[in-house]
Amino acid sequence: MSKIIRVNMTTKKVNIEEVPEKYVGLGGRALTSQVILDEVPPTCHPLGPKNKLVFAPGLLSGTNAPSSGRLSVGGKSPLTGGIKEANAGGITSQKMASLGIKAIIVEGKAEKGTYILRVTADDVELIPADDLAGKGTYELTAILKERYNEKAGVICIGPAGEMKMQSAGITNNDPEGNSSRYAGRGGLGAVMGSKGLKAIVVECDKAFDAPVKDKERFKTAAKKFAQILASHPVTGEGLPKFGTNVLMNIINEAGTLPTRNFSRGRFEGASEVSGEKLAEVATQRGGKATHACHPGCVMRCSNVYPMPDGKVCAPIEYETAWCFGPNLEISDLDVVAKLNYICNDVGLDTIEAGCTLGVLMEAGVLPFGDGEAAIKALEEVGKGTPLGRIIGAGAAVAGKVYGVTRVPAVKGQGIPAYDPRSCKGNGVTYATTPMGADHTAGYAVTANILKVGGYVDPNKEEGQIELSRNLQIATAAVDATGLCLFVAFAVLDNEEGLPTIVEMINAQYGTNLTVDDVTALGQQILKNEREFNKKAGFTKADDRLPEFFYEEELEPHNTKFELKEELDEVFNF
Amino acid sequence: MKVYKIKFAETNKIKRVFKLLLEVRLYSGLEKYVQGAKYGKPMKVEMPDGTTGRQLLDKLGIPQEQVFSILVNGTHRDRDEVMEDGDRVALFPPVGGG
Ligand code: SF4
C-alpha cells in the first residue's frame, strides 16, 4: 500500500496517511511542487515552521526501469525565496519506493535539539540525536549505517544546513556509502536544519520492490527503454566512458566556458580539469572512471576519484569541476576534488560555493587561481566564521557584502557552467525557470552545443525561447518519473523514447496515459511552480539575467545576451 | 608540436604554395588515432587550400564515423565545409553530460 509519511517537528508526531486521490498519479517533482503549492503559504519565511520539506521518489523509482532511482526534494527555497525542487541520485529513492512510500513530508520546527527519522518496513520513528549535531555528512552516514543498518539509505545534512546557510544542500549516499549524491541547489539543507532534522535513515534491503500492476508488459517496455539508452551515442557511449565532465573540453572549445567569474568564454587550463584527465588520474590511482550512483543505472556517468590524502571524491561532476576550476582559474584537479569533498562533507551546494568563491575573488578577498586560498576559505564554512557564513550564503549575498557588480545569479541562485551569452538557450532557461538559475531545468546545451535534439545556433537569439520552453516542459515531466534527466539525450533523438516511458508508467500503474498527457503534466508542474512564485512576490523583472550579461561582451564570440521582453513568452502555454 | 606536411604541385612557373596551417585539437578518445597526440594539446596541421573537415579526418587517419562534432573557431561545422588558414579546429566523438 502506498502511503505518505508526515512528520511534525513541532509536536514530534509521525502520521502515516493514505495517498489522496489527487496525488495518486504524481511522483517526484510533480508531487513535491504540488504539495508545496497546496500546503505552504508562499510568503512564509523559508526557515520558519510554516515551510515544509517534501521528499518524493519518482513514479518509476523502485522498478526495473533503467536509471529511474532519482529523488526529488521540494520546499520553499531560502536562497531564491521561491519554490524549489532539487533532484538527487543515490540509493534512497529506490528504497523509499520499495517500502511503498509516496512521500515524506516534514513540517513544523523543533524548538531545540537534533533529531533523526528512522524509517523501516514496520515503523517510523523520530529519535533524539543530539550526539550527532555538527557532524560532517561522511562520518554521520557511516555512524548511522553502523548504528541501524549497513544497507540503509541515509538522507542528511552537514553543519552548513544546521547553521541554516542558505546554500546548504541535502545529500544521500551512493551504493558504497559516500554521502555525495546531493539535492544540492537552493538551500533546502538549511530548511532541514531549521526544523532540527539531521537525517532520515531509510532501511530496506530491496531496490526494485515497488509494486507493478502488469509485470510482463513492464518488463518488455523497460527492456526496450534500456535498448534506446544503449543505442544512443551519448547515453550508450559518451556518458559511460568519461562521465559528465567530458563536457569541459567541448564547452571550452565552443567558447562558452565561464572563466574568471564569467569574464571570458575560454580557459587555457580546461583540459587539465576535464573528464579525460579525471579518467586518466582516477584509473592510475585505482579509482573508477565510470560508476553508477544507484543500482540499475545503465548510463553510469559517475566516477570515483582518489585524492592524494587517501580519501575519495565520488563523483566529480562537470559543473563542480567548472565552478572550482575555470571559474576560479584553477587548473589542478586535486584542488577541485578537495573543494568538492569539503562541500560534500560540510553540506554545501558545490555550484553555489564555486560561484561565491568567484565573486569573492572578483572582490579581491582572495586571488584568482589560488587553490590553497580557496581551500582555506571554504574550510571556514564548517567553522561558522563570518567569512564562512558569507560563503554559505551564496553568490548574490557575497556580491552585496563586497559591492561586486559582476554577480552571476538569477533569483538569488548562482549561474552554472555555461555562459548565457554564447549558449543563449541556457540563458533563457536560467532567466525564466521558477527554480532560479538552473541548467538542468531546460538544458539547451543539447541543441546549442551537443547537437542532440536538433541544432540551434548558440550565439543567435532565434529559436532559443521555443527551445527552452519545450525543454522546460519535458524536463519537468522527466523529473516526475524518477528517471535521470540524462535519459533526455536519447529520448530527444528517438521518437520511441517518450512513448516507451509512458508505456512503463501505464504498465506499472494500470493507467492509460498518452504522450500528450505527459506534456500536459510537464506544463502543469511549471504552472504550479509559477503560481507559487507569483504569490511569493515574483514578477517579470525576476525573469531576467543580471545586467552585465546585457552589457559586457563575451570572448571569443564577442556576444552579449539580448533577450528581454521575449523571455515573457516562455510560459505562454 | 607535430607538423604534418603535404606536398603541393607547383602552379605554372610561379612558385606558389596554396596551403593552410590549421591548429587542431583532439578530444575524448580521438587522440588515440594520431601518434603522439594528447587530448587538448594543439597540433599544427598543414593542408591544401580548400580542405574540408572530411579531408582533415582522412589525413589524420581518424575514422569518419568516430567524429560527431567538428568545431571551427568555436562553431559547429559540417564536415564538407571548407576551412581557412589559421582555423582552430576541435574534433569530438559524441559527448554529453550536464
Ligand atoms: S546517469 Fe549518472 S546521475 Fe544519472 S542515474 Fe546514472 S550515475 Fe546517476
Annotation keywords:
heterodimer; A: 573 residues; alpha+beta; Aldehyde Ferredoxin Oxidoreductase,  A, domain 1; six-stranded mixed β-sheet; 17 strands; 40% helix; globular; B: 98 residues; mainly beta; Ubiquitin-like (UB roll); 1 helix; binds iron/sulfur cluster
Structural class by SSE content of chain A: alpha+beta
Strand order in the sheet with the most strands of chain B: 1-3-2-6-4-5
What's the CATH class of chain B, please? Alpha Beta
State the name of the first-level CATH class of one domain in chain A. Alpha Beta
Describe the biggest sheet of chain B?
Answer: 6 strands, mixed
- In round numbers, the mean pLDDT of chain B is 87
Task: State the helix count of chain A.
Answer: 22
* Percent of residues in helices of chain B: under 10%
Shape of chain A: globular
CATH topology of chain B: Ubiquitin-like (UB roll)
The tally of helices of chain B reads 1
- The overall strand count of chain A is 17
Largest interface: pair, residues per side: A-B, 45 and 23 residues
Rounded to the nearest angstrom, the radius of gyration of chain B is 14 Å
Largest sheet of chain A: 6 strands, mixed
CATH superfamily of chain B: Beta-grasp domain
Q: Which stretches of chain B are poorly predicted, pLDDT < 50 over at least 5 residues?
A: 9-15
CATH architecture of one domain in chain A: 4-Layer Sandwich
Instruction: Write the CATH fold name of one domain in chain A.
Output: Aldehyde Ferredoxin Oxidoreductase,  A, domain 1
**CATH homologous superfamily label of one domain in chain A:** Aldehyde ferredoxin oxidoreductase, N-terminal domain
